[in-house]
Amino acid sequence: MKIGLCFFPKVGGSGIAATQLAIELAKKGHEVIVFTYDTPFLLRQSRHENIQLMLIDLVSYPLFKDIGYPYTILSASKFVEVIRKEKLDVLNVHYAIPAGVSAYLAKEITGIPVGITAHGSDIHILGVDPAYNSVMSHVFEKTNGVSTVSEYMKKEIHKHFLKDNDKIHVIYNPIDTERFKKQEVKQCDFKKLFNNYFIHVSNFRKVKNAPFIVKAFSEVLNHNDDVGLIMVGEGPERKDCEIIAKSLGIEDHVLFQGVRYNLAPLYSCSSALISASENESFGLTLAEAMACETPVIASRVGGIPEVVEDGETGLLFEYGNKDQLVKHMLTLLEDKELAKKMGVKGRKRVLENFRCDKIADQYIQWYETLID
């Protein structure tokens, strides 16, 4: 099969998941053409021979200075050009806005079967905005099929966009269980500072609720001061987190690391991964940490309960309940045997449900239905 995949190249959930899918499809012998505007980081060092990279031209023009690039038209033009030249069998765009509209235009022009994969904020933040909703509803109705990353997201799409529930397929995000596995790190730099630490990985957008984690962690320190909090990533609320840590007098215990590409050693050394999000469609970092046999603590929102088995692979708390979060953090600090058992069960769950080759097979089956 010759498959077109379009996604954002940034270090975010949809981009990482789609890149991993491209790699796995290529391993299975399919020709994959990746449409994006920059090289995804997982493809920078090496690229499977079955993967072609087609960069979307970001054409600049003075008239567009105040509104940015007309990305929808630019990507649609690239789709049409490559579809005609390469004779693609199917086009799958990840993140519905704006690529869903671009794919719809390409379908109207070339007749190619199109599948839209919705990842989260493209639905429950952008998609429901009146500025986008009317057009996106039409695009979802007219596309050949829609996939998404959790049952929670399927309900959201059905509620806001698609009357035909059977048109929506749930395919979970793929996790590379060879890249994400427990590593016996002989000398973890952070262990020189503290015997235990928690880790938070995100883009520090408001929905991730990172400042809440810093505040909860300050209360953990009242019970155990031999613990650190590693904050990985960049984004709008990172500075707020730094200010809060300093105001609480815990800045020496909260370490900001910026963007890190090799996360498995950090997951493997940590007592737990913490997520306090207001909403999550899936929770990619949770599954990555579980694959490394690290227990997770997360808010009971969105698709997270589909990833994390409460009490088995991690501990869930009600969104915004700081007392519950603090209690869970202390539990995993104090009960090492429980933490270890949760870690083992977490990896088992990832292997059974989110392994790359299994997810790629589900996408292939979905593509076949789009073509038929």
Automatic annotation (TrEMBL):
Residues 195-349 form the Glycosyl transferase family domain. GO terms for biological process: bacillithiol biosynthetic process. It comes from the Archaea. GO terms for molecular function: glycosyltransferase activity. Residues 11-179 form the Glycosyltransferase subfamily 4-like N-terminal domain. This is N-acetyl-alpha-D-glucosaminyl L-malate synthase BshA. Transmembrane segments: none annotated. NCBIfam families: thiol_BshA (TIGR03999). InterPro entries: Glyco_trans_1, Glyco_trans_4-like_N, Glycosyltransferase_grp1, Thiol_BshA. PANTHER family: SULFOQUINOVOSYL TRANSFERASE SQD2.
